[in-house]
Design brief:
alpha+beta, four-stranded antiparallel beta sheet, 157 residues, HicB-like antitoxin of toxin-antitoxin system domain-containing protein
C-alpha cells in the first residue's frame, strides 16, 4: 500500500513540510531527507495503530497533475472526499487552495487561478515562487488485503 506525499520547502523558515493527504497529516523536517525519513516512520506507525485498533485503513484520496503555464511547470495536488462531494486543488509554491463539489470543476478553477497568478506576476514583474516542491508515493511496511472489509479468520473443517 502506498500514499502520496507532497514535500514543500520554505525559504523563510529553512525547512521542508511533508503532507500526507490521505491521513490529513503533515510534519516538518530541516531537510527533504529528514522529512522523508520522519514521514516513513509516522506512516508505518499510523497504519499499525489503525490495524491494531481494528479501524479501516484510509484509501489514498489524492492525485497530482503538472500544469504548464507560461513555459513553467507547476505541480497541482488534488484531494477528494467523495462521501461529501468535496474536492480541493492545492498549488504548492503559491500556496493556493481551491475547492469545489466536483473534480472537473476544481481542476478548471485551479487552471484559472494559476493562469491569473502567473499573468499577474508577469505583468507586475514579480518573481514566480521557486520553492522546493517534490511529490512522491511512499509505501507502507504493511500489506493490506482490503481497506474496506474487516479481517476475519475462516476455519475449514
Amino acid at each position: 500500500m502506498s500514499y502520496l506525499v507532497i514535500y514543500e520547502g520554505d525559504r523563510a523558515t529553512s525547512n521542508v513540510v511533508a503532507y500526507i493527504p490521505a491521513l490529513n497529516m503533515d510534519i516538518i523536517g530541516d531537510t527533504y531527507e529528514e522529512a522523508r525519513e520522519i514521514i516513513q516512520e509516522i506512516l508505518n506507525h499510523e497504519i499499525s495503530s489503525l490495524i491494531d485498533a481494528g479501524s479501516l485503513i484510509p484509501d489514498d484520496n489524492a492525485s497530482t497533475e503538472t500544469l504548464l503555464m507560461g513555459g513553467t511547470k507547476f505541480p497541482v495536488l488534488y484531494e477528494s472526499n467523495r462521501d461529501k462531494n468535496h474536492y480541493t486543488a492545492y498549488i504548492p509554491g503559491f500556496r493556493i487552495r481551491v475547492e469545489s463539489s466536483s473534480l472537473e470543476d476544481v481542476k478548471r478553477k485551479a487552471r484559472i487561478v494559476l493562469q491569473n497568478e502567473v499573468t499577474y506576476r508577469k505583468n507586475s514583474n514579480t518573481k514566480t515562487p521557486e520553492e522546493f516542491v517534490h511529490i512522491e508515493r511512499i509505501s507502507t511496511a504493511h500489506i493490506v488485503i482490503s481497506t474496506s472489509v474487516p479481517l476475519r479468520t475462516l476455519q475449514i473443517s
